[in-house]
Each structure stands twice: as structure tokens, then as C-alpha cells.
Amino acid sequence: MKRLWGFRPLCAALLLTVGLGVADAASVKLQPQGEALTRAVQAALGAISTKELPVTLDSGSGTVLVLGGAGSSAAPFNPDVAARVVTVAGTRRIEFNPAGPLPLEQAVRQELARELGFKDWTAEAARTRLSGADLNGDGQIDLKDLAILMENYGKAASVGDLNQDRKVDDADLRIFSSQYKPVRTPEPAPVEQKPAETPTTPETPAAPGTDTPPASTPAEPAPGDSAPGGGETPPSTPAQPTEPTPKQP
């Protein structure tokens, strides 16, 4: 790890010095049989081809692609399988199910991704896998790969010789710099600060046995009700009318 980190200042300087490299090309060795499969393979390669790294078909050798089984005596396909890989007379073949669950173009992309070791069928995956710049084969083109290239710089080595001219030199650095893309770690989203809430003081409950019931005014008993201490309440005496006093003559 110390050795790798020691390369960091040198790596940055080299990438700035050599600038962007020229566009390279990658060819995929496959032998599609029949017009339908050939069109499907060419369409699949066109989907991952870019100006920086064109991907072309080399049909002179490689895995054979066929639609259906190998001959009339071939085993029937599992209806849930889009394709299968077999070896016939020492030749590797990918046989596509004519009545499979996927359309032919989708089945071709799925099987070619497995065949070529792509994580997914994208231009980025093709760039990483086919450019040759992923020298340690970890699926990324980063400073670890540049460290490997610099170990072989100026040597007649195969590792780091990206243009296949039997030496590792500035031309390979230019190719590497065109493929190098540092992985950026996304910044964490800012945490929204909420205003602190003022805690409310709970009321202190009264101690058990100290509650005093509210005083109530006793109601005046109605006539005929029992008076306190027993017995009936005597009826009240009506007021006597006052006669007018006669005037003296």
C-alpha cells in the first residue's frame, strides 16, 4: 500500500503531461452463424461502441453462435432458458433457444456479457474490460493499474503494453490516460438542523392522601324532608298581615 501511495504525485503529473490519448479500437472474436444472429451481434456491439473506443466484430475466430441446437439429434431446449453453452468437437458454442423467453437481441446481449466478462452491457463496462487498461482485473481503471504500468515502463513487457508494440512507453501512457477515470465518492447530503424544542416541565402530582375534596354548601332541605338528627322539619309559620292603624279624629 505504501508503494501505491508513493505513486500518487507521479501519476497525477504523468496524466497531465501526456494529455488525452488517441482513440483505440477493440475487436471481439465471435462467429455468429446466420443473418439474424449476425445482425443481433452487430447491434449489440454498436450499443457499447463509442468514439473513444470503437468495438468491432472479428468473425474469423472465437466462440460460435448458433440459433437452435447442433444438428437434428441435439437435446431439446429448456423452455425457460434463453441460451446454453456447449462444446462440440472441441469448439465452444453458444446455442440460442428459438422459442426462448427473451427476444433474440436481448438474449444475445445477455450471453455476450457473460462471455466477455462484463458486469452489464454498457459502454462503460466495455471500456473497462476491452481497453486493456484494467491491468489488475478488478473491474476498475485506477491508480493501482497505473502503478503496474509504471513498474514496466521502459521495458519490453507484455503487462502494460496497451498498444501491443512489445514495449511499455509514452504511447501506452496516452492510451491509459484516455481510459483513466477516477471514481468519485458522492458527497453526503447536508443534514437539516432542526431548532431545539423547549422541554415542558410536567406538573408535580399531589402526594397520596393529601387531596382535599372541595367544600360543598349543604342544600336547604325541602319541606317535609327529614331534618338532621331525625324527625320532620316543622313547617314555617306564615307571616301575619299587618292591619292599618286608624287615624285619630
From TrEMBL:
Residues 1-25 form the signal peptide. One of its GO terms (biological process) is polysaccharide catabolic process. InterPro entries: Dockerin_dom_sf, EF_Hand_1_Ca_BS, EF_hand_dom. Keywords: Signal. Transmembrane segments: none annotated. GO terms for molecular function: calcium ion binding. The keyword Signal applies. This is EF-hand domain-containing protein. The lineage of its organism: Bacteria, Thermotogati, Deinococcota, Deinococci, Deinococcales.
